[in-house]
Design brief:
The chain has helices at about 5-20, 30-45, 55-70, 80-85, 90-95, 120-130, 135, 155-165, 180, 205-215, 230-245, 330-345, 345-380, 385-395, 410-415, 435-445, 455-460, 465-475, 490-500, 535-550; strands at about 20-25, 50-55, 75-80, 100-110, 145, 170-175, 220-225, 250, 265-270, 280-285, 300-305, 325, 400-405, 425, 450-455, 480-485, 530-535, 555-560. The strands form 3 sheets. The chain has a 6-stranded parallel beta sheet with strand order 2-1-3-4-6-5. The protein has a 6-stranded parallel beta sheet with strand order 9-8-7-10-11-12. It is built from 20 helices and 18 strands. It is α/β, with parallel strands linked by helices. The radius of gyration is 25 Å and the shape is globular. α11 (about 230-245) packs parallel to α12. The chain has 3 domains: about 5-180, 3-Layer(aba) Sandwich (Rossmann fold), CATH 3.40.50.970; about 205-360, Rossmann fold (3-Layer(aba) Sandwich); about 380-560, Rossmann fold, CATH 3.40.50.
Length: about 575
């Protein structure tokens, strides 16, 4: 029995020092040194990362991504050579765009069987080794590189974790030769935990200057887009808005819950008509808030508050900002509230503003409630009716994940998104990742219900069988509501936009639009999922009640909602 630690132990020890809780993988044969180290960890009853094995690479990346999004703590992913990296590339690309910190390793052979003292499997010489998968991944991730020796392996993994966690956060990839993982490793004399990345904060003078402008503004407003990625920023934004009675508008492209929608200062999603009268707009976590980008919605002063507002992965960006306050968003918002209180403000004017916007909020909420109630009465199944039933039956602490196109805005308007981390929508321009993201969130929040809303087209892009297997194997019960309109409706809308008088509009051919999908409610049966199809509001109510009961039993559920 081999007792000398090798490179596999170096990798696992580096993960321990980085605080990695899960190694998520779609396995490859280069990872036997890591499996040996994990086995030794278990036999010796040592603390360290747990192991999750998936049947698909994108699923592995998505589970790690969902967990990291929910906890803020970077996790690790192991993929097989260049082939596994290419399979998982969409997930890596999207995680980097969403600024999710992950450490991702892939392996290959560098001796290719020519070293008699270290025999290698023939697959590496036959083409599995590509001479550096880091070259393939570099355009898709924050940083990609190679481990250049056995002696530098441990610290290279440590450095990868430290790089991933620094602003802008993202995926860091290492190509690790198998020979270095098999080589003996001598641990450093002093093994210590890796210090957390420091928080970059805005300059106090900049915050104070903005506070002075803010308290003098007669009609300030806030547009929130991605600030809620940090639950501290969700709370800090609410505190600032409450202090000065500043109304909050949700940007249409938001990927998170940024502000409690039951707060009297919430004006709704995309309610930009109110900006016309504003003299000061705070853009919290703004990335692409305006469409078209050059259309300025206000003559007032726009201040972009973000840790890093200019996203290098966007090919074009126009925030319309007149001023930037850069640093940790939660810290900036908290400091801004403190500075405003220190500067002092007109309490009577603030309360008058609060009364005005609270009235607008009541009208907005009443209109949305009327939409839901009317939809429920008609018994015709649509998103408003579905949300009405969901609001009635689902627990208040439910977490909603959304992977749709056509139904995205109605869901954001009608779901009860009143708590931090109550809503997630993956960024990156690639569908087919929602189930894995939901499973990762469930892994991080096992006591809370997790509900994924997916379009029928989006659902079919997912690795369904592999994801359902992971849900079953790792006891991650989630509810999937498929909003099934039997089409790629967004593609149909695009066709009509570009060809309003086109011949396709007068035919029933439907190229690129129609979907002839299997019965989604049956797909989970091999994994003991609850399944139901709903064509009416009454049927959806019955189906949701059954799904909730199944979740309580530890079973996942799929509702095929024909909208």
């Amino acid at each position: 029995m081999k007792n000398q630690p090798d490179g596999g132990e170096a990798i696992v020890e580096a993960f321990r020092r980085l605080g990695v809780e899960y190694i998520v993988t779609s396995p490859g044969s280069e990872w036997s040194p890591v499996w040996e180290a994990l086995t030794r960890q278990r036999v010796d009853a040592r603390s360290g990362p747990q192991f999750i094995q998936c049947w698909h690479e994108t699923l592995a990346v998505n589970i790690a991504t969902g967990y990291t999004m929910m906890t803020g703590r970077p996790q690790a992913v192991l993929l097989h050579a260049a082939a596994g990296m290419l399979q998982g590339a969409l997930g890596l690309f999207a995680a980097t765009r969403a600024e999710v910190p992950l450490v991702v390793l892939s392996g290959e052979s560098v001796t290719l069987g020519e070293d008699d003292a270290r025999p290698m499997e023939g697959q590496w010489y036959a083409g599995v080794s590509v001479g550096g998968s880091d070259r393939l991944m570099a355009p898709l991730v924050k940083w990609s590189g190679r481990v250049h020796s056995a002696i530098t392996l441990y610290q290279s993994v440590i450095r990868a974790g430290e790089m991933a966690a620094r602003t802008p956060k993202g995926v860091v990839h290492l190509d690790v030769p198998l020979e270095y993982m098999l080589a003996d490793w001598t641990p450093p004399q002093a093994l210590s935990s890796v210090p957390p990345a420091p928080t970059r904060v805005a300059l106090p003078a900049d915050v104070h200057r903005l506070a002075e402008r803010l308290v003098k503004a007669s009609n300030p407003m806030i547009v929130a887009e991605h600030s809620g990625v940090d639950p501290r920023a969700f709370d800090a934004l609410a505190q600032l808005a409450e202090l000065l009675a500043i109304p909050v508008i949700g940007a249409p492209g938001a990927n998170f819950a940024n502000f409690p929608q039951d707060n009297p200062l919430w004006l709704g999603v995309g309610a930009y008509q109110h900006l016309e009268s504003s003299d000061l707009v705070l853009l919290a976590g703004g990335r692409t808030p305006w469409t078209p980008p050059s259309r300025r919605r206000t003559s007032g002063h726009i201040v972009a508050i973000n840790d890093e507002p200019m996203k290098s992965w966007l090919i074009y960006q126009n925030l319309q900002a007149d001023e930037y306050i850069e640093g940790d968003i939660a810290h900036t918002l908290t400091a801004l509230a403190e500075a405003a209180a220190s500067v002092g403000f007109d309490s009577a004017a603030v309360e008058a503003r609060r009364s005005t916007w609270s009235g607008v909020h009541r009208n907005v909420n009443a209109a949305l409630q009327s939409e839901r109630e009317a939809a429920a009465r008609s018994d015709k199944l649509n998103v408003m009716a579905i949300c009405d039933v969901v609001r009635e039956l689902m627990r208040a602490d439910a977490i909603y994940v959304e992977e749709t196109v056509t139904h995205a805005i109605p869901l954001r308007k009608h779901l009860p998104l009143n708590r931090p981390q109550s809503f997630f929508r993956h960024n990156g321009g690639g569908l087919g990742q929602g189930i894995g993201i939901a499973l990762g969130i469930k892994l991080a929040a096992p006591e809370q219900p997790v509900v994924l809303f997916a379009g029928d087209g989006s659902m079919l892009y997912n690795p369904i069988v592999q994801a359902f297997g992971a849900a079953k194997q790792y006891d991650l019960p989630i509810l999937i509501v498929v909003l099934n309109n039997q089409s790629y409706e967004s593609m149909g809308r695009g066709h009509r936009l570009y060809y309003p008088d086109g011949v396709a509009n007068s035919t029933d051919f439907g190229y690129g639009v129609k979907i002839d999908a299997p019965p989604f409610e049956d797909l989970g049966r091999p994994f003991d999922f609850f399944g139901a199809c709903a064509t009416s509001v009454a049927e959806f109510r019955t189906a949701l009640a059954g799904a909730i009961e199944a979740l309580g039993e530890g079973r996942s559920a799929v509702i095929n909602a024909m909208v």
